[in-house]
Amino acid sequence: xxxxxxxxxxxQAGEPVGVVxxxxxxxxxxxxxxxxxHMTGVAxxxxxxxxxxxxxxxxxxxxxxxxxxxxxxxKESYAKSFAKADEAAKKISEIKMSSVMRHIVExxxxxxxxxxxxxxxxxxxxxTARPIAARLGKELGVEAKVGEHGNIIVSTHTKNLKEVRAIxxxxxxxxxxGIEGAGRAMVVQDKNGDFYIESAGSNIxxxxxxxxxxxxxxxxxxxxxxxxxxxxxxxxxxxxxELRKTLEDQDISVNDRHISLIADAMTSGGTLQSIGRHxxxxxxxxxxxxxAFEETVKHLINAAAFGEVDHMRGVTENxxxxxxxxxxxxxxxxxxxxxxxxxx
Length: 344
Prior knowledge:
PTS-regulatory domain, PRD; 344 residues; 12 strands; four-stranded antiparallel sheet; Alpha-Beta Plaits; Gyrase A, domain 2; alpha+beta
């Protein structure tokens, strides 16, 4: 039988792919600067976490990234017009009351709150006092109207100091325009001349409803948002892409197969799992493999208490007891027929 050439295989039989992938990512990781930040396409909107902190964030499968970003593609009619793209961006861009007001005055004896608006900030955000008052009234369940000088007067219908102060805090934090969590949105032009939106936040579901947005072409670096909206395959691809991009930003070259294997392992169970004692390692079948990583005594006591059996199929547990690992030459089982057995 003719032997196939090396390049005809994706990987050789018995190759310890997990160890090689871990080493391929772990070794260059030691070359990274501990805390590094760089500017992304959102320009002054956000400073994205990169380098080792971002790698740790991805492998720990953090629920929310420290620097969430969204890339929102638009339908053709909007992508060709800056005015229309800007209109969509204004509907998305999150603006809080604190960024459009000068100061706030509480009148505890009358149970009223005066919000003095910043005219310049309002003009920059293309807003007026009336829609802000309407949104405040709707979201906070208070009576808000525009006063003589264009300021907002909020009637709390209570004279209790604590309750008035609580409403004041809510007003300051209230969103007066755009989508909660979307952050500041900006219109960007790609090399083909098409306009799209980049936003320093992440909240895919409501963004999909905005007129002009292509709901199938929204990308975020928030893994759990991608998983929740587009499914586990999209989350897996996002994880691989973010790992690759972070390494490339540091001028580190790692073969795509190692990155893909890590992304596959973290999403193989149908959900996003971290690499650690609360994720992949903590859910290994082998007692010894779990005990060799962290919380040794806990795993051994639980295994003894519940009568767990270790079938010694993995690498870690075999090294631990001094047996040959089932990889490489150890994966081959040979049976030799002696001359004596032939005679029988």
